[in-house]
């Protein structure tokens, strides 16, 4: 699967990010795009509510207002996606 979320941009202004869980989805994004927008696009694409997913980069949870520039992301970096699990006891 491949999603190009931003078209008509010069390649020098964009880079590829990979969201990886059991799927692998590619996004071409600007360095200034807020991660919340990408997270929403990903969750819509896989049909899972954004609130039930965790997005991590370099082992740290990604906030919606962060940008790839702030996270010091580079071309072909991978964002790990995990389904939230609620625990309990019997």
What proportion of the residues is helical, as a percent range? 10-25%
Number of helices: 1
The total tally of domains equals: 1
From the N-terminal CA to the C-terminal CA, the straight-line distance is: 40 Å
What is the CATH class name? Answer: Alpha Beta
Widest beta sheet: strand line-up: 2-1-5-3-4
How much β-strand is present in the residues?
Answer: 25-35%
Rounded Rg: 13 Å
- How many beta strands in the DSSP annotation? 5
Spans where pLDDT lies below 50 across 5 or more residues: 1-12
By CATH, the topology is Ubiquitin-like (UB roll)
Broad shape: globular
Q: Regarding quaternary structure, how should these chains be classified?
A: single chain
Give me the CATH superfamily: Phosphatidylinositol 3-kinase Catalytic Subunit, Chain A, domain 1
Task: Please state the second-level CATH architecture.
Answer: Roll
- Largest sheet report: 5 strands, mixed
Family: Belongs to the ubiquitin family. SUMO subfamily.
Keywords: Isopeptide bond, Nucleus, Ubl conjugation pathway
Protein name: Small ubiquitin-related modifier
Domain Ubiquitin-like: 1-88
Q: Could you describe the 3D structure shown?
A:
The chain has 90 residues and is of the alpha+beta class. The protein has a single domain, classed as Ubiquitin-like (UB roll). It is built from one helix and five strands, in the order ββαβββ. A five-stranded mixed β-sheet has the order 2-1-5-3-4, with helices on one face. Keywords: Isopeptide bond, Nucleus, Ubl conjugation pathway. Residues 1-88 form the Ubiquitin-like domain. This is Small ubiquitin-related modifier. One of its GO terms (cellular component) is nucleus.
């Amino acid at each position: 699967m491949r999603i190009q979320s931003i078209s008509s941009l010069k390649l020098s202004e964009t880079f590829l990010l990979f969201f990886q869980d059991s799927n692998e989805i590619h996004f071409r994004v600007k360095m200034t795009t807020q991660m919340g927008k990408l997270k929403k696009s990903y969750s819509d694409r896989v049909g899972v509510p954004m609130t039930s997913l965790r997005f991590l980069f370099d082992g740290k949870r990604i906030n919606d207002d962060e940008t790839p520039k702030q996270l010091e992301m580079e071309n072909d970096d991978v964002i790990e996606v995990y389904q939230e699990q609620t625990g309990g006891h019997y």
